[in-house]
C-alpha cells in the first residue's frame, strides 16, 4: 500500500472537509520555529516517519514557545525510529483535549464480509491491541453506498456515546467514511480523534494507506511508486517500478533489500515466484550470504521484461554474485528466461563484472531446451579464463537442494572477492 505520512494524510482530510489541527510541516529547526510563531500558542512537534509508537520513541513533544519548538525539532531530527531517519516534523497547535477516541476504516477480508469495516472505540490514544475487545465496536460497510447514518448512530450508541452527542459523532464518522471511499484508502485510522473542551471533534492523528491499484486514478497524490517499501524508494526501486508500471506481461517486481554497497556478501537475487523466492533466501541465509535486492519474474513474462529486470539486478555495484533462483517446477515457458539471461550476461560480464559468480537454476516447462540455450549461449564465456568462468547452470535435480546452491554461491563468491582483492579492486 502507498502510505502517507501524518501531515500528508491530514492535508487530504482537510480537503475532504474534516477538522484537523492548524499547522504545517518543517524540514529544519528554523522552519519549526517560524511555524510556531505563526500559530502563536503552544504547539506539538511531531516527527514524521512511517512507524507507530512515536510517543514512546520520543519524537512527539509538546512545547510552549517558538524557541522550544526549534529545540524540540533539532532533537527529533537527531533520532531515528527502527532505523528510519526523520527528515520532517509536523508543527501544529496543541489541542485542548477533553476526551480521546479511536476509529479506523479497514478492509474486512473475512469470507462472510469482504467489505470495508469501521472499528470504533471510546478508548483512543492507545495501541489498538491494548483496547479490550468489549470496548471495540465494529460494523461492516456497504462498499457501494458507504457508511449509512443509521449504522453510524448504532455503533456510537453501542459504544456509550451520550445521546446529545450521537448526531455529532455519527456525522463525523460518515464524513470519514466518505473520505475513505473517495481517496481509495486501504486503511484510514484516526487515533486519536479528540473532543476539545468546547465540544468539537478534531482528527489529532492520521494514518492513511492508499490501495496500490488505485494510484493511477489519483495523480494529485504525486505518488512516484505504488509499492510497500520500508522507507523512501531507492533508485533501484524506482527503476523496478518503471518496468512493472509500463509492462503488465507477467511479473517484473524489483526492489532494494537494504543493500549498503560496501559490506561483502551481498548477492544480486533474481527468484522466479514467491515460493521459489523463500527457498532462495533460505539458500543464501544458510551460508551467511545476503540478498542485495528482490526481483521476481514469474507469471510467464516475456524475455524483454526479464532482460530489463536482470540487467538492473546485475547493475548493482560491489555484489559478490548473482542467483537466478528457479526453486520450483514452473509451468511458464522457461526459455524466455534463458534467452534474456544469455543476453544480459554477454553484455555485463566481459566489460563490467568479469568473473562474477552466476548460479543459474531453472526447471519446469521447456526445461531441457532452456538449459541448452543457457549452455550454448554462454559456452564461450565459461572457459577457464573467460569472463563467465564462474557461471554454473543447474536443473530440476537441484530444485529443492537449497544447501547445495548456497554452498556453491559461497565458494564462488569467496573466490571472486579474493581475486578482486589481489587485483586491488
UniProtKB/TrEMBL annotation:
Keywords: ATP-binding, Ligase, Nucleotide-binding, Tricarboxylic acid cycle
Pfam families per UniProt: ATP-grasp_2
UniProt domain ATP-grasp: residue ranges: 10-234
GO CC terms, sorted: cytosol; succinate-CoA ligase complex
Domain of life: Bacteria
Residue intervals passing through the bilayer: none
One of the GO BP terms on file: tricarboxylic acid cycle
Gene Ontology MF annotations: ATP binding; metal ion binding; succinate-CoA ligase (ADP-forming) activity
PANTHER family per the UniProt record, alphabetical: SUCCINATE--COA LIGASE [GDP-FORMING] SUBUNIT BETA, MITOCHONDRIAL (PTHR11815:SF10), SUCCINYL-COA SYNTHETASE BETA CHAIN (PTHR11815)
Protein name, per record: Succinyl-CoA synthetase beta subunit
Organism phylogeny: Bacteria, Bacillati, Bacillota, Clostridia, Eubacteriales
Amino acid at each position: 500500500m502507498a502510505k502517507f505520512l501524518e501531515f500528508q494524510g491530514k492535508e487530504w482530510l482537510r480537503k475532504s472537509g474534516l477538522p484537523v489541527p492548524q499547522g504545517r510541516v518543517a524540514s529544519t529547526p528554523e522552519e519549526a520555529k517560524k511555524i510556531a510563531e505563526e500559530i502563536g500558542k503552544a504547539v506539538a512537534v511531531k516527527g514524521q516517519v512511517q512507524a507507530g509508537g512515536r510517543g514512546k520513541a520520543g519524537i512527539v513533544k509538546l512545547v510552549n514557545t517558538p524557541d522550544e519548538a526549534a529545540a524540540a525539532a533539532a532533537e527529533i531530527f537527531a533520532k531515528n525510529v527502527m532505523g528510519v531517519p526523520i527528515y520532517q516534523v509536523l508543527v501544529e497547535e496543541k489541542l485542548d483535549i477533553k476526551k480521546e477516541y479511536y476509529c479506523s476504516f479497514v478492509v474486512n477480508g473475512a469470507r462472510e464480509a469482504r467489505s470495508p469495516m469501521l472499528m470504533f472505540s471510546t478508548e483512543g490514544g492507545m495501541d489498538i491491541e491494548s483496547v479490550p475487545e468489549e470496548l471495540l465496536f465494529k460494523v461492516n460497510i456497504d462498499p457501494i453506498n458507504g457508511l449509512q447514518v443509521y449504522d453510524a448512530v448504532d455503533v456510537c450508541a453501542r459504544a456509550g456515546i451520550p445521546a446529545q452527542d450521537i448526531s455529532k459523532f455519527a456525522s463525523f464518522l460518515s464524513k470519514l467514511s466518505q473520505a475513505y471511499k473517495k481517496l481509495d484508502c486501504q486503511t484510514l485510522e484516526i487515533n486519536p480523534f479528540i473532543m476539545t473542551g468546547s465540544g468539537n471533534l478534531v482528527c489529532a492523528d492520521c494514518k492513511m494507506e492508499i490501495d496500490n491499484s488505485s494510484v493511477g486514478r489519483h495523480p494529485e497524490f504525486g505518488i512516484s511508486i505504488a509499492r510497500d517499501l520500508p522507507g523512501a524508494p531507492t533508485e533501484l526501486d524506482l527503476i523496478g517500478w518503471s518496468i512493472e508500471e509500463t509492462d503488465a506481461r507477467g511479473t517484473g517486481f524489483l526492489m532494494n533489500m537494504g543493500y549498503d554497497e560496501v559490506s561483502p556478501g551481498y548477492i544480486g537475487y533474481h527468484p522466479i515466484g514467491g515460493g521459489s523466492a523463500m527457498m532462495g533466501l533460505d539458500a543464501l541465509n544458510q551460508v551467511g550470504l545476503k540478498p542485495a535486492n528482490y526481483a521476481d519474474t514469474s507469471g510467464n513474462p516475456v524475455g524483454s521484461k526479464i532482460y530489463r529486470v536482470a540487467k538492473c539486478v546485475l547493475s548493482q555495484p560491489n555484489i559478490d554474485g548473482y542467483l537466478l533462483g528457479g526453486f520450483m517446477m514452473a509451468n511458464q515457458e522457461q526459455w524466455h528466461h534463458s534467452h534474456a539471461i544469455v543476453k544480459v550476461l554477454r553484455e555485463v560480464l566481459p566489460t563490467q563484472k568479469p568473473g562474477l559468480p552466476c548460479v543459474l537454476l531453472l526447471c519446469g516447462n521447456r526445461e531441457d531446451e532452456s538449459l541448452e540455450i543457457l549452455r550454448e549461449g554462454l559456452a564461450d564465456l565459461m572457459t577457464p579464463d573467460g569472463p563467465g568462468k564462474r557461471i554454473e547452470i543447474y536443473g530440476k535435480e537441484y530444485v529443492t537442494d537449497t544447501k547445495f546452491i548456497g554452498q556453491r554461491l559461497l565458494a564462488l563468491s569467496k573466490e571472486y572477492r579474493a581475486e578482486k582483492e589481489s587485483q586491488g579492486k
